[in-house]
Design a protein that fits this description.
Mean pLDDT: 80
InterPro entries: DedA_domain, VTT_dom
GO cellular component, one term: plasma membrane
Largest sheet: none
Strand content: under 5%
Radius of gyration: 17 Å
Order of helices and strands: HHHHHHHHHH
Pfam family, one: VTT_dom
Shape: globular
Keywords: Membrane, Transmembrane, Transmembrane helix
Number of helices: 10
Helix content: over 70%
Distance between the termini: 49 Å
Structural class: mainly alpha
Protein name: Cytochrome B
Number of strands: 0
């Protein structure tokens, strides 16, 4: 099922209204959809490199707006909608334990989930459920999602189709390594 959903998402890249399709995918990915917008962005940018940064802008705006929906689900309908979504993603058991630590980490969970392949929708719902300040959530979401989507757009714009395999297979790992190094740097400065 996931493969057919991925193939359907990829087929949207050739649609005349691909930007609208990207906006919809990026919006719903931030609260319920399992396929990241990168799957649609990459073929769109390869097909029209001059539009790379417009495509990244559409993905960023729609993703942040979708993140606000996820936040609202967590804040207003966690028991009826949020928990079942998290449970379907295999995160139901960790929810209660995670709640205790979530807000003490400030903006870091939103930043990390927004930049890495970690399901952003989990963090959007958790942010609303735990009562993370909306301003913190919103600012961090804009920074994280723009960072991720503009990185992909920039790589494709400057290096073209040959970088596609790297982005699809290794960018998530490289981003995780970057975040680990960033956190390690902050911890080293703080404790040394």
């Amino acid at each position: 099922m996931l493969r057919s959903l991925y193939d359907w998402t990829i087929s949207l890249a050739a649609h005349p209204r691909a930007l609208w399709a990207l906006a919809i995918v990026a919006f719903i990915e931030s609260s319920v959809f399992p396929i990241p917008p990168d799957a649609l962005m990459i073929p769109m940018i390869i097909a029209a490199p001059r539009r790379a940064f417009l495509i990244a802008t559409v993905a960023t705006v729609a993703s942040v707006l979708g993140g606000l929906l996820g936040y609202a689900i967590g804040a207003l309908a966690f028991d009826s909608l949020g928990f079942p979504i998290l449970e379907a993603l295999g995160k139901g058991d960790a929810v209660l334990e995670f709640n205790d630590r979530f807000n003490s980490m400030d903006f870091w969970p939103v930043l990390i989930a927004g930049l890495t392949p970690f399901p952003y929708k989990v963090i959007t719902i958790m942010s609303g459920w735990t009562g993370l300040p909306l301003t913190t959530f919103l600012v961090t979401s804009v920074v994280a999602r723009a960072g991720r989507f503009f990185l992909v757009a920039g790589l494709l714009y400057f290096f073209g189709a040959p970088i596609r395999e790297f982005i699809e297979r290794r960018l998530g790992l490289m981003t995780i390594l970057f975040v680990v190094l960033l956190l390690g740097g902050f911890l080293a400065v703080r404790f040394l």
